[in-house]
Amino acid sequence: MRMMLRFVVAPIVLATAVAGAAPQFRTLNDRQDPPRFESREAWTPRAKYLREHILASAGLMPMPARTPLNPVVFDAVRHSEYVVEKVYFESLPGFFVTGNLYRPVGAGPFPAILSPHGHWTNGRLEHTAINSGPGRAIGLARQGFVVFTHDMIGYNDSRQLTHTFGGRREQLWGLSLGGLQLWNAIRALDFLETLPYVRRDGFGVTGESGGGTQTFLLGAVDDRVAVEAPVNMISLQMQGGCLCENMPNLRLDTNNVEIAATIAPRPLLMVSATGDWTAETLEREFPAMRSAYALFGAESNVHAVRFEAEHNYNKDSREAMYAWMARWMQNAPAGEKRPEKSFTPDSLADLLVFYGRPYPATALKAGQITEQWIASAARQVASANTDPAILQSALRHVLGFAQAALPPKVDLPPAVELPANAGSRLTTGSQRLAVVADAPEAVVSALRAAGFEIQPVTFTPFDEAAAAKIRHFETYNRTAASQRVLDIVNAMRRSPSATLIAAGDSALPALLAAAMTPIARTIVDVDGFNTSNDVEYLERLYIPGLRRAGDLRTAGGMFRGLVIVHDGRDGFFMPGARMTPVQLEPRAIVAAAMR
Question: With respect to CATH, is domain 63-232+264-375 assigned 3.50.50.60?
Fold first, then answer.
């Protein structure tokens, strides 16, 4: 982490003091306690927060424009009971979703199901005794469902990006592999709505493993999902091992059971297996989920089954799903069986979308997709048509704060005349309080001499070496910068009428803290930070999603106290702050703190 201080004297040691041993960072494999759902009144706002949090972590808050899909459906293969077709459409301009459409013979309208796949070698085309993507699509089509089974990014026909796509710059702008896949799923429902033989009264979604993660994330954020069946995925001891399941910030202070519960009271089937991380579903995850449904008097809308099997979407699992979808989407009686008939998948030539044909000429390369996303996001953030409240909410999610409204304004303490000699101690009555974070020792000494009580921020230890060893660290933990924001907020919530003075690594986090909690005065030295430069954010204020949420510009609109920024220079822009071009220096700080 780059240090920003340029003072001759060192920062006061107390300003960066830490307490206790280094914290234990969270991981995807932590064994967690089941969440408790105690009242509908408490759960309703929490569920709303979680739905928004998924969107913010996916870079979908505000929601990108729903640009034309330009769908192409072709090369139909007709069977006696169903038809299989190839499909591609643009979820973003020049970025294609690919897959197969299975539909019953006839005009419909039929209920429709989206079927994302897991991390099998052959993706949606995997066909073994353990799992068959074509098998479940055929089984559903024979029973009267339209099914769209589409590729994960980097699998089969989805070749514009690899399944390792993304980096720190992309994450600043809310662009991630998992976020793109969630957007693809949302647009896939848009595509299904365009088909004249599809009912529009709600969709089913089912997928296994990583496709199970896609299933419950989509069900959380899209009300068009009427029923879902994630297979072998909702667990309290493994949250999802792939990059595509671990969007930055997604599981800050939450887990998959709580996230999946946001679909309640819509019907949910939890399919588990004895041979993977869902082995205890009937004892641990399902009772917790059922308690969430009980809040709505809808216990019959959630069900769980477990099979003696390894990680799978096998025939037993598929038949459980068939019966569940039939019950809720075809009004079949509860408990009715839907046995699977034998089937033969179509050939790869009949299923691969771009078999023997080139990709569309308008297809973008990886770098072009990134630049297009960033340009579009920047326009959206800057647009007068974008509701500032949405950006402010996105910023709270990016920083891991659940507060739903702007904090109240804080009354400033009465002004005190600065004595001619800044070193002489005031005798004006009660002492004032200055909370300091990385403030230079000379500034702290001057504040003390002017009659201020000094309270240093105690920062949570951050072990960068330990953090680097944790897979998908930023999904479960705050970055060093966002942890500093939280520590400063906690300090200021104890003393909201105090003056916050910050420099060095704490200056920029202090500005974000001032947007998250009421602070009477905030005085910082930003050391020439350039608010329009991605490299500056990567080096000095790395928080995934920050730029997508409007960064310091959005924070400036949330201030409820006086904010004074020193050394902003020409590249610094922050509405709501008073700009002072000079560096932070003792007498000026004391004057500002007393003004």
Answer: no
Task: Tell me the one-letter amino acid at 554.
Answer: T
Amino acid identity of residue 510, one-letter, is A
Q: What is the mean pLDDT of the chain?
A: 91
Overall pTM > 0.70? yes
CATH 3.40.50.1820 placement within the chain: 63-232+264-375
Question: 3-class SS at 540?
Answer: helix
13-28+389-594: CATH class: alpha beta
Neighbours of 45 (CB within 10 A): 11
Instruction: List, as one string, the DSSP characters of 400-439.
Output: T----SPPPP-PPPPP-PPPSSTTSPP-SSSPEEEEEES-
How far apart CA 422 and CA 319 sit, in angstroms, is: 80
Phi, psi of 168 (to 5 degrees): -65, -40
Task: Tokens 């089941």: give the residue.
Answer: 34
Q: Where are the beta strands (DSSP E) in 337-491?
A: 432-437, 452-456
Q: Are 497 and 433 in contact (CB under 8 A)?
A: yes
As given in the structure block, the two tokens for residue 11 are 């920062």
Query: What element of type H or E holds 40?
Result: helix 40-57
Q: Work out whether strand 95-104 and strand 82-92 pair parallel, antiparallel, or are unpaired.
A: antiparallel
**pLDDT at res. 593:** 72
DSSP, collapsed to helix, strand or coil, labels residue 334 as coil
Q: Which residues contact 375 (CB under 8 A, 6 or more apart)?
A: none
Question: How far is residue 158 from each of residues 133, 322, 481, measured CA to CA in Å?
Answer: 16, 28, 35
pLDDT at 16 over 50: no
| Spatial separation of the C-alpha atoms in residues 92 and 3, rounded to whole Å | 39
Strand-pair partners of 72: 88
CA angle 306, 313, 269 (to 5 degrees): 50
CA nearest to 547, candidates 380, 400, 309: 380
The pair of three-digit structure tokens given for residue 432, joined into one six-digit string: 């004032």
Cα separation, 274 vs 283, in Å, equals 12
**Angstrom distance (rounded) from CA 130 to CA 51:** 32
Supply φ then ψ for residue 337, to 5 degrees: -85, 145
User: Angle 126-129-134 (CA atoms, 0-180°, nearest 5)?
Assistant: 40
- Enclosing H/E stretch for 94: none
**8 Å CB contact between 120 and 312:** no
Residue 281 has pLDDT above 80, yes or no: yes
**Coil/strand/helix, residue 107:** coil
Q: What is the pLDDT of residues 329-364, one digit of tens each?
A: 999 999 899 999 999 999 999 999 999 999 999 999
Q: Contact, 202 vs 223, CB < 8 A? A: no
The residues with which 540 forms a beta bridge, in sequence order, are none
- Residues 49 and 537 sit within 8 Å (Cβ to Cβ): no
Residue type, 260: A
Rg (C-alpha) for the chain, rounded Å, is: 27
Q: Give the residues across from 204 on adjacent strands.
A: 113, 227
| Cis amide bond preceding 586, omega within 30 | no
DSSP H helices in 116-242: 133-142, 168-172, 177-193, 210-221
Burial category of 58 from C-beta neighbours within 10 Å (exposed 0-12, middle 13-18, buried 19 and up): buried
Residue 193 CA to residue 199 CA, distance in Å, equals 8
> Can you tell me which residue has the tokens 């994630």?
230
Task: Dig out the tokens for 492 from the structure.
Answer: 């200021």
